[in-house]
Amino acid sequence: VWRQADKYGVPRMCFVNKLDRTGADFFKALASIKDRLTSSVAVLQIPIGSEGDFAGVVDLVNMNAIVWRAEELGAKFDVVDIPAELADKAHEFHHELIDVVSQYDDVVLEKYLEDETSVTADDLKRAIRNATIHDGLVPVLTGSAFKNKGVQPLLDAVVDYLPSPLDLPPVHGMDPKGKEELERKADAGEPFSALAFKIVADPHGKLTYFRVYSGTLEKGG
What we know:
The protein has helices at residues 2-7, 26-36, 87-102, 106-114, 121-134, 151-161; strands at residues 14-16, 41-43, 45-48, 56-59, 64-68, 77-80, 138-142, 171-174, 181-184, 193-202, 205-214. It has 221 residues and is of the alpha+beta class. A hairpin with a 7-residue loop joins β3 and β4.
């Protein structure tokens, strides 16, 4: 799957899951990602605790901690200060994050060389997004999806760092008669084009899932 994503230039992120399981080791998994997949990684979070004591993550972009309330099954969380015992490690990984991102962004590089503390969270988000979409940088996050710990920041990261349709080039395909190649931009004003990729038998009838590439489809169309 990774090789296929490389082949087609698909931007991606890594989510190190199951941090609450026995034997879970985020840093070992991170080393495996760097060894087997890519060395171009931007670590955006480190865990607070592990296995049965996994409680949350340190956000290395905003430099705070996110701790989930166990009794709420991950639905609610608190944004708090970084635990004292993780302060040194958090600053170490924050420094590494700025160092990695500075290799892709001149603004971050200039601030990094002059005064590292002047690099803001907004600087990092903008640079990470651009490098993820255009230069193959891979943000790394972590959590426990089964307990819903880490899911909300992951969804935020999808919005913050992965491309929207407007960030991607137009799609190309053949016209229905197979005579000429057509181009479609991600624009509601373009002719309607979509790919039906799944049909499901439902009590209300057959449901067809499709991805819209251009144009709009009206109700009953």
